[in-house]
Amino acid sequence: MQRFTAERTPETADRLWLCEHDPVFTQGLAGRQDHLLLPGDIPVIQTDRGGQVTYHGPGQVVAYPLLDLKRAGYFIKEYVYRIEESVIATLAHFGVTGHRVPTAPGIYVRLDDPFSHAALTGPHAPPLRGSLPPKGADSPWGGPAANPGPHPGADPFRGLGKIAALGLKVSRHCTYHGVALNVAMDLEPYSRINPCGYAGLRTVDLSTIGVPVAWDDAAQVLSRKLQAYLLP
User: Fold this and answer.
1) d(Cα 16, Cα 230) in Å, to the nearest integer?
2) Could you list the residue range(s) of the whole structural domain that residue 168 is in?
3) Distance from CA of residue 98 to its chain's centroid?
4) 140 in helix, strand or coil?
5) C-alpha 88: how far from chain center
6) What is the CATH number of the domain that holds 94?
7) Which candidate among 27, 41, 83, 84 keeps its CA 20 to 30 Å from the CA of 230?
8) 193: which DSSP letter?
């Protein structure tokens, strides 16, 4: 990804890479060692993406959009929004409702009812979503937040499980790294870290919430949604 991004020109076509990693923990640029609890025999790799530590492994679809944002005509906040919308649309294809949490990029599901269409309420309710945010919006969700976010001391993840994580890098207006969607994984390695820097954050996959999906099927749907939502 680094080499492709460094060598690309304004004429280079955008790419979308999808893969399935061997077990690995990756640390973002802001990653703190104290979020690595007991990595054990799983290697830890330092990366140049944003964010904290996360886990990749078999049963997870990892998508790397290699996109020229200048040519696409939008900025990083809208890019984050579009990726999250792609995941939400992918989950909806399988009957699952995805949610955002303010200040915590990624997509989450309700543990009590992953299929409920009811909006989140209370301290972890996200800003309202609908249309794409305007260019230069104040938040990744489209303009000023409709909800001020969690109250001091509240648990923004109460009742939620994280099913997709984002970790991005932009160099010369070009993106790399991307998004990971949990399909049917061994989730034990997440107990060895504070996922994305949040102690006690529950991580789930489609399998554990009762949605049996083959990796290839999930990858194909996510690929289609990313291509649809990332096009300018």
Assistant:
1) 10
2) 2-230
3) 11
4) coil
5) 10
6) 3.30.930.10
7) 27
8) B
Tell me how far apart the alpha carbons of residues 107 and 125 are, in angstroms, rounded to a whole number: 13
Tokens 């996109």: give the residue: 67
Q: Which tokens go with 110?
A: 């309700």
Question: Which of the following is catalytic: 96, 164, 166, 196?
Answer: 196
- The letter for the amino acid at 52 is Q
**What are the C-alpha distances in Å from 15 to residues 10, 136, 149?**
13, 24, 35
pLDDT tens-digit profile, the chain (232 residues): 999 999 999 999 999 999 999 999 999 998 899 999 999 999 999 999 998 999 999 999 999 999 999 999 999 999 999 999 999 999 999 999 999 998 889 999 999 999 988 877 655 554 433 333 333 333 332 333 333 334 444 577 889 999 999 999 999 999 999 999 999 999 999 999 999 899 889 999 999 999 999 999 999 999 999 999 998 7
Model confidence, pTM = 0.86
Q: How many distinct structural domains can be found in the chain?
A: 1
Q: Is 196 a catalytic residue?
A: yes
